[in-house]
Amino acid sequence: MLASMNTTNLEPPNAPFASSASVRSGSPRTESPLLGDTPLSLSVNYLPSKFSDAVLYNGLKRRNGKGSPLGVPKRGGGREAFKSGEARMPGEGDEDYDGVQSSWFSKGAGGRTPPRLRWNRFKWILFVSNLLFSGYSLAGLIFLLCTWFDVWHHADIVRVGNRPELIVSTIAAAAGIITSLVGWAGILLNNRSFCALYTFFLWICFALLTIPGYLTFKRRNFNLDGKINAQWSDQLSVDGWLRIQNQLNCCGFFSPFVEAAVSQVCYSRSVLPGCKGPYLDFQRFVLERWYTIVFGLVPFQIGVIVVGLLCSNHITYRFGKGMMPKAYRLSMNSMAVIMDNYANQLAEQYGADVATEVLARSRSNLQLDSLPSMPYSPGGKFEAGR
Questions:
Q1: How high is the pLDDT of residue 336?
Q2: How many CB atoms lie within 10 A of CB 364?
Q3: Whether the Cβ atoms of residue 250 and residue 257 lie closer than 8 Å to each other
């Protein structure tokens, strides 16, 4: 740019370009004649060479063909943020500007109602997957609670003979319900923090889901007969024998004379058969059904985890929460201060004429011609009288 002006004996400027007293002091305000006493972004300390090509060379497109009142390119956000060539930075009027905005629960800035948010495909996919996850978690919890309250036929046998598996399964179902509620909070409130917790808790639910499947599969397929013998002799009490006998209509383990709980139908001359055969058949049936259902849910759980990983950070069309804190977002005021400081530095190095021409070209490239221009003196200060 400087070479095209046919200037001679020019030396490169010294960094940093933002050398005004207000910038060096770290003050977030400026007294520029262009801006007045206006709060500024911390981006005023950035070097112009650090800006993206899209900002420097006007590579951004305007939204719907309309620019800002001052003619700068749009900064991004909203539904169009995933289009080709669009920026990711949000503006004041963009959807989900602060990360948690919902017309259901709050109003926008100034008491006005924010625009109605439209769901993108990522949010719909996350919604469907969490609905599926909530469905089988709730169904499993209801079934397990019915087992605990002895609603099903022979449910008392499961409460006596399969108590560890029943406890772990109940914990897994309850954890699934809690995790799904966290997911609903993140989806409906557009809160990526909740969605991150939701995705993390899905892994815990996956581990809790596989534990009862492993326990029931191992019990069913590895010496179930010997485990039944050890359980009846060492783990079950007389009350446990009695409850199993009443459910299976049997007496004793092999016969009324071997490890039997005396009752009105189970005594020394009872004709009822022993409980080992019926109890062994019942355990084979229940355990097989148990791990089949659990392992059948594993692919769905993995699918929910994959959907959470891929979609939880895209519940709106803007990536992340804006990619930059508000204090560092580049605004019109900040851009004007950066250009003023840069031109002052150029005026100190090369003179006011060069600084004025460079600033004019920069304004034209960034479509900032609507901003008033000020002449610069070699001292780096505005000439207030001109």
A1: 74
A2: 11
A3: no
128-151 residue pLDDT tens: 999 999 999 999 999 999 999 999
Lookup result for tokens 């004041």: 92
Task: Output the CA angle 91-95-40, nearest 5 degrees.
Answer: 20
Name the more confident of 81 and 249: 249
Report residue 221 as tokens: 């397929």
First to last CA, the chain: 26
The Cα-based distances of 233 to 52, 226, 236, 259, 375 in angstroms read 76, 11, 7, 8, 99
Digit-coded pLDDT (tens) for 163-195: 999 999 999 999 999 999 999 999 998 888 899
Q: What's 57's DSSP letter?
A: T
Q: What is the pLDDT of residues 265-309, one digit of tens each?
A: 999 888 999 999 999 999 999 999 999 999 999 999 999 999 999
SS3 66: strand
User: Is-contact 156 247, C-beta < 8 A?
Assistant: yes
Q: Token pair for residue 66?
A: 């309309």
Which positions ≥6 away from 44 have C-beta within 8 Å? 18, 23, 30, 334, 337, 338, 341
Beta-bridge partners for 39: 29
DSSP 92: T
What is the largest distance, in Å, between two alpha-carbon atoms of the chain?
Answer: 122
What type of residue is 9? N
The answer to whether 143 touches 172, Cβ cutoff 8 Å, is: no
| Count of helix runs (H) and strand runs (E) in the chain | 11, 2
Q: Rounded to whole angstroms, how far apart are CA atoms 237 and 345?
A: 90
